[in-house]
Design a protein that fits this description.
The protein is α+β, with helices and mostly antiparallel strands and about 290 residues long. Helices cover about 40% and strands about 30% of the residues. Helix 5 packs parallel to helix 7 and helix 6 runs antiparallel to helix 7. The strands form 2 sheets. Strands 1-2-3-6-7-8 form a 6-stranded antiparallel beta sheet, with no helix packed on it. A 4-stranded antiparallel beta sheet has the order 5-4-10-9, with no helix packed on it. It has 7 helices and 10 strands.
């Protein structure tokens, strides 16, 4: 009898252990329904990182359905979407200090409110408090160029020190600009080296003038630097830039003379591309 009880006890214990282990063994390893994603982009000197999750449409009505109009949205799924920038930037026309922020939105049919918030440790809307908002701005939604099954954040349209952040899902696209502080840093270095340290170098004057020309900054100042570069070293590329700055300032006679000088030097040094460029500009300016 005792032996039978011992056997039954061992059987019961074995069944108990089997039942305890069953839920663990029954769990399957499945892909996340809203997989996480991270995008990284350098804008000027600034590193931008956006971490978010990507829910899918799955045949549902997204905006005005799954994402109600007029309600705060986590702008993704799972944990809050996080935007991190290593330098101060201008986002949607408003200044934003370097740091990490959660990104929320309030979509409506006619406008979206974009929100950056200090609280970054939340899941979804957990921990969100309006008093921690650091900036808000509104943008108009557009129809996307294609259908986006998964929610997608992109950084596109990169030009110099700026780009555009796109929020795309289903047939809707929202975008807003991000501008780095590269221009402030470059301009400060130029002025410090030229005015502060008094570096009298033709290459520095040329680079400073070219930066101002390309970014459509103070033409008079740029022309002064280009003229100093030419005086120290009449290189064909220095003369070419001087010619373009003279034309931008309205002095086409001076621009033509500088372009002809540039073309002659370029011809001597066998830089035929610059000869062609100068001749094209001369033909254009002679019509003014």
């Amino acid at each position: 009898m005792i032996m039978q009880l011992n056997a039954l006890g061992r059987l019961a214990l074995g069944l108990g252990l089997l039942l305890l282990s069953w839920p663990v063994k029954a769990q399957l390893s499945l892909p996340e329904p809203s997989p996480p994603a991270t995008i990284q982009q350098k804008i000027g000197f600034t590193d931008l990182t956006i971490t978010y999750s990507r829910p899918a449409v799955k045949g549902r009505t997204v905006f005005g359905g799954l994402v109600p109009f007029g309600k705060l949205w986590r702008t993704g799924a799972s944990d809050a979407t996080i935007l991190k920038t290593t330098d101060p930037v201008v986002l949607g026309g408003k200044p934003l200090s370097a740091g990490s922020y959660s990104l929320f939105t309030i979509p409506t049919q006619s406008a979206w409110t974009i929100i950056l918030n200090r609280h970054v440790g939340g899941h979804g809307l957990d921990g969100y408090d309006e008093k921690n908002d650091v900036l808000r701005f509104t943008v108009k939604p557009d129809s996307s160029a294609r259908f986006y099954e998964s929610f997608t954040i992109e950084v596109q349209d990169m030009v110099r020190n700026r780009g555009m952040i796109y929020l795309n899902w289903a047939n809707t696209s929202v975008h807003f600009p991000i501008v780095s502080n590269a221009d402030e840093r470059i301009t400060a270095e130029i002025l410090e080296r030229i005015n502060g340290k008094k570096e009298d170098k033709p290459g520095l004057y040329y680079q400073a003038a070219l930066y101002y020309f390309d970014n459509e900054k103070d033409t008079k100042q740029a022309l002064g630097w280009a003229t100093k570069a030419v005086a120290l070293k009449p290189a064909f590329n220095y003369l070419h830039l001087q010619a373009k700055l003279l034309a931008r300032s309205g002095d086409y006679k001076g621009a033509i003379a500088a372009a002809r000088h540039s073309a002659a030097v370029a011809q001597q040094e066998k830089f035929t591309d610059y000869v062609t460029l100068n001749n094209q500009l001369i033909a254009e300016w002679e019509k003014r």
